[in-house]
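Can anyone check this?
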Amino acid sequence: MSPATAASRDSSADQVAETMAAIGRSARAAATVLAEASTEAKNAALAAMAGHLRARAREILVANTGDCTRAEARGISGAFLDRLRLDEIRIEAMARGLEDIAALPDPVGSVIAEWTRPNGLEIARVRVPIGVIGIIFESRPNVTADAGALCMKSGNAAILRGGSESIESSRAIGDCLEHGLVDAGLPAAAIQVVPTTDRAAVGLMLAGLDGNLDLIVPRGGRSLVARVQDEARVPVFAHLEGLCHVYVDRTADPAMAAAIAVNAKMRRTGICGAAETLLIDRACGPDMLAMLVGRLIDAGCEVRGDEAARAADPRVTPATEADWSTEYLDAILSVRTVDGVDGAIDHIARYGSRHTESIVTGDQATADRFLRRVDSAIVLHNASTQFADGAEFGMGAEIGIATGKLHARGPVGLEQLTSFKYVVRGSGQTRP
């Protein structure tokens, strides 16, 4: 490396460090204001943001077209492009999502519990914002709106670092959010989109931005989440891959089982709630197995199966050991026969990512056993895994599905983006 090249890289690194430090400082200042902001001001900002998204939809689509064109030139997969691509329907969904968040109760200041001690002390546990939240995500530009809005409504400042493939889309959306904040008299720095695609920006966020970052939320593939968990100096809400399962029990209604299996896989193959493995009770028999596999293949799904699945339909290709632990995010599904509900539970425990699992059964006791024993963030009975979504839970948008067990689990919405403090009121008590 020549001295000139080295000097240029040093200068670039310095610029990124200065930019990120400034973002951190301004986010901390904005968080102080947001913590005291009224519900009315926050809701007014959300309404203004939604208006800007609608008014500037054409501008956002132009930016997104550029992102998609560059991604296609790099040979990005179809599933990845589906997550990246915006259209008028998806922009309208973003705008409605902001309005849905505005309609939700403000968690800040709500009393979780309260009690009075024998000495007369009145104690309350009250929700408070976390502070400054950093969200690191890949490909989905709609996360810019969802995450920024959720953080703001819950009283937190947000620093959003999207993937390089969606940078122009995220900037266009972020500009709409900024204008909405200003319209409502709130600081523009309450929601900031990191302006650089330099990977050093991620490292600086993981280091905490000089103490100005309180929480990191990664939303992306295994490699991103692994890096965040390995390097972060601040707490992390982990959203690992969505290796979701549908189990069809011997008592399942065939028509219901087929509808759920096809929807769970094919409605949108690139989302984390898409099913990746179909488990079928061996007692269902070859006819039921053939029907389910046939319906999936006819819907355009590639099926990779065990010996029984291949015997049921010659179009099934052999599954390898790796298939049971693969998040395809594509129109591909692995199919395996198991020995009843316990066989399904054992398979999920070995290969699952603790995201979302569904059982299709007509037997309540079997359903209860599955729901009780499967250790995942979301478990469903007779419903598609595609319902693994904060909006479908009535929580408005979500930042992601947390697969850990501490603080937040499942859809991360408004309440999950708050902490709490104890407020104690006395009348002169002293401790003996």
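Reply from J.R.: I decoded it. Confidence is low (pLDDT under 50) at residues 1-8.
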